[in-house]
């Protein structure tokens, strides 16, 4: 299901020439936009980027340009507003020195704190279910708080052209940007990365998702969690706060943390009710963003929805596995020492990244249409906002889920001790390559910057040791890779063997892609004749 439908909908959706963006308030003024420079002066300093305190300097922001060297590149990509992001609005930004960080160098790098940012710190992300009652409520009340505090970033639905035209004409462009709450900013950022191309004249079922279905999926979400975790620490003035993880493997098909006083219960009509959900609202939901108009952060949907029992039943009848992923599924993924394989998208088989993402069958190791396992399965079983990659982070369970996904990534990184050299530089979808920027987090990071053990960023996971093992891991004697070829203990220069594998996989993929194209039309046809409660996954 997933993006075959989305893509099809994009073809028939109305094309608005609008685009969106999010940048620090301090950079959204006539002067900064005209000079394409986002180098604010931090509080307590006199010069941009705190140069007078040796914190950083305002420098050209060099981004990797999209071009034909990328194997996933297509002409229409040029028309998307995220093209060479964020160059359409800014091409100069603060380059911070030593351990300083942030868009104005007023903050510390992840993992450091103190006035001079020279104290290292390691915080633990903990299992939500094992927290004390007070700690569980701390998460909920902190999230609640972010829904009432204004962000220091603003978002825009106007086209870059419109913004530029205004600044060139010397008019104040501020009114084209909107204030949002901290929580809505993060919902927006996820939506912005995941939504399809806007100027897609020749769209032929193409996905353009900077956060999902590609090599960069795990690093994108790792940075996203770091950013919101840091922001929650700031908003609540609780420097020690970490995002807990929800270990869904202990649930069969019922979410045990979804109780009235914590993550809420789902009513018969799919509405989430509970202590923290009485005044919940959502933005950028599937209906808003796909069929009628681009997301307007000011348009609030007054409810949060999850999958209702009747739809769950229907989906089961339609052949969906409606149980949460098991430890067995996680363990299977962790046996793959190959991080990713061509085409580095949702269509690759026999690799850790796409297994954890959830497009691969955890028995065979192969990608097949309509397989939803691991990460995807959790989105599907929770349903509602969570079942669409555009709206998923409206649900506070999203962050607990992704913390759990990130924990599995961390186990992999520690187990196999690999670095970013395993990432492809040109053959992953746009925005997912090793040196590509993680769109649209600002200040900017590349996937390579983030593909590192969590110690580098000052956090650790409860129950994961330095080798990536946990007390409840499987016996190390289990080693089945399903139907995948066993390519173990490769020498660094066994190119011949690697390429043989590539060729085999490429031909299998060829078949699968053909099959996908067939199912695209079938599914799209079915969708319009018998709407299902299934939406694209995140
Ligand atoms: C940044 O943008 C400005 C305005 O369009 C342009 O004059 C300048 O050459 C650009 N700088 C870089 C490094 O691209
Ligand atoms: C947005 O917030 C700023 C303060 O950060 C305020 O000055 C401005 O008036 C707000 N804009 C709107 C449209 O509410
Ligand atoms: C779309 O395809 C047509 C015909 O192939 C071509 O003339 C046109 O330039 C294409 N438009 C874009 C934006 O690629
Ligand atoms: C959420 O925050 C608002 C604003 O601070 C507060 O009025 C409300 O009581 C909070 N909700 C809960 C359940 O704590
Ligand atoms: C995975 O493949 C196995 C063997 O073909 C099959 O029995 C199982 O139902 C598949 N699982 C999913 C989730 O599709
Ligand atoms: C990354 O790993 C490769 C292969 O194991 C190794 O050759 C390289 O030196 C490593 N790079 C860094 C920066 O550690």
TrEMBL record:
<dbReference type="InterPro" id="IPR008922">
    <property type="entry name" value="Di-copper_centre_dom_sf"/>
</dbReference>
<keyword id="KW-0503">Monooxygenase</keyword>
<keyword id="KW-0812">Transmembrane</keyword>
<protein>
    <recommendedName>
        <fullName>Tyrosinase</fullName>
        <ecNumber>1.14.18.1</ecNumber>
    </recommendedName>
</protein>
<feature type="transmembrane region" description="Helical">
    <location>
        <begin position="503"/>
        <end position="525"/>
    </location>
</feature>
<keyword id="KW-0472">Membrane</keyword>
<dbReference type="InterPro" id="IPR050316">
    <property type="entry name" value="Tyrosinase/Hemocyanin"/>
</dbReference>
<keyword id="KW-0325">Glycoprotein</keyword>
<keyword id="KW-0732">Signal</keyword>
<feature type="domain" description="Tyrosinase copper-binding">
    <location>
        <begin position="395"/>
        <end position="406"/>
    </location>
</feature>
<feature type="signal peptide">
    <location>
        <begin position="1"/>
        <end position="21"/>
    </location>
</feature>
<dbReference type="InterPro" id="IPR002049">
    <property type="entry name" value="LE_dom"/>
</dbReference>
<keyword id="KW-0560">Oxidoreductase</keyword>
<dbReference type="InterPro" id="IPR002227">
    <property type="entry name" value="Tyrosinase_Cu-bd"/>
</dbReference>
<keyword id="KW-1133">Transmembrane helix</keyword>
<feature type="domain" description="Tyrosinase copper-binding">
    <location>
        <begin position="212"/>
        <end position="229"/>
    </location>
</feature>
<keyword id="KW-0479">Metal-binding</keyword>
<keyword id="KW-0186">Copper</keyword>
<dbReference type="Pfam" id="PF00264">
    <property type="entry name" value="Tyrosinase"/>
</dbReference>
């Amino acid at each position: 299901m997933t993006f075959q439908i989305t893509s099809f909908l994009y073809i028939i959706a109305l094309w608005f020439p609008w685009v969106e963006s999010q940048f620090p308030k301090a950079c959204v003024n006539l002067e900064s936009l005209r000079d394409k420079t986002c180098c604010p002066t931090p509080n307590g300093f006199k010069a941009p980027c705190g140069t007078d305190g040796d914190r950083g300097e305002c420098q050209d922001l060099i981004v990797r340009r999209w071009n034909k060297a990328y194997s996933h590149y297509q002409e229409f990509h040029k028309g998307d507003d995220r093209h060479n992001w964020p160059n359409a609005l800014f091409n100069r930004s603060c380059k911070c020195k030593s351990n300083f960080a942030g868009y104005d160098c007023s903050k510390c790098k992840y993992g450091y704190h103190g006035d001079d940012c020279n104290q290292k710190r390691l915080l633990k992300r903990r299992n939500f279910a094992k927290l004390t009652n007070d700690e569980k409520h701390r998460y909920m009340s902190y999230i609640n708080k972010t829904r009432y505090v204004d962000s220091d970033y603003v978002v825009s639905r106007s086209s870059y052209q419109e913004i530029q035209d205004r600044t060139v004409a010397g008019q104040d462009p501020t009114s084209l940007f909107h204030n949002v709450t901290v929580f809505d900013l993060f919902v927006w950022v996820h939506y912005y990365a995941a939504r399809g191309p806007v100027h897609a004249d020749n769209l032929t079922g193409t996905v353009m998702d900077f956060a999902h279905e590609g090599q960069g999926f795990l690093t994108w979400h790792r940075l996203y969690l770091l950013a919101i975790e840091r922001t929650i620490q700031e908003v609540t003035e609780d420097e020690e706060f970490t995002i807990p993880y929800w270990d869904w493997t202990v649930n069969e098909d019922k979410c045990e943390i979804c109780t009235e006083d914590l993550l809420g219960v789902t009513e018969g009509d799919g509405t989430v009710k509970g202590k923290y959900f009485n005044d919940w609202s959502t933005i950028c939901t599937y209906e808003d963003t796909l069929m009628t108009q681009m997301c307007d952060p000011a348009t609030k949907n007054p409810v949060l929805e999850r999958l209702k029992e009747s739809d769950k039943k229907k989906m089961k009848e339609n052949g969906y596995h409606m149980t949460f992923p098991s430890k067995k599924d996680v363990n299977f993924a962790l046996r793959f020492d190959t991080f990713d394989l061509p085409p580095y998208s949702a269509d690759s088989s026999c690799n850790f990244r796409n297994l954890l993402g959830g497009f691969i069958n955890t028995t065979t190791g192969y990608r097949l249409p309509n397989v939803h396992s691991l990460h995807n399965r959790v989105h599907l079983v929770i349903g509602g906002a969570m079942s669409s990659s555009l709206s998923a982070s409206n649900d506070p369970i999203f962050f607990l889920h992704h913390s759990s996904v990130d924990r599995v990534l961390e186990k992999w990184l520690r187990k196999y001790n690999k670095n970013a050299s395993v990432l492809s530089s040109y053959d992953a979808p746009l925005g997912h390559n090793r040196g590509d920027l993680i769109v649209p987090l600002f200040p900017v990071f590349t996937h390579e910057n983030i593909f590192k053990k969590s110690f580098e960023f000052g956090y650790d996971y409860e129950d994961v040791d330095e080798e990536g093992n946990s007390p409840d891991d499987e016996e190390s004697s289990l080693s089945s890779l399903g139907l995948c070829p066993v390519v173990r203990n490769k020498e660094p220069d066994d190119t011949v063997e690697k390429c043989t594998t590539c060729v085999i996989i490429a031909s299998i993929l060829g078949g699968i892609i053909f099959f996908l194209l067939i199912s695209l039309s079938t599914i799209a046809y079915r969708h319009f004749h018998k709407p299902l409660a299934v939406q694209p996954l995140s």
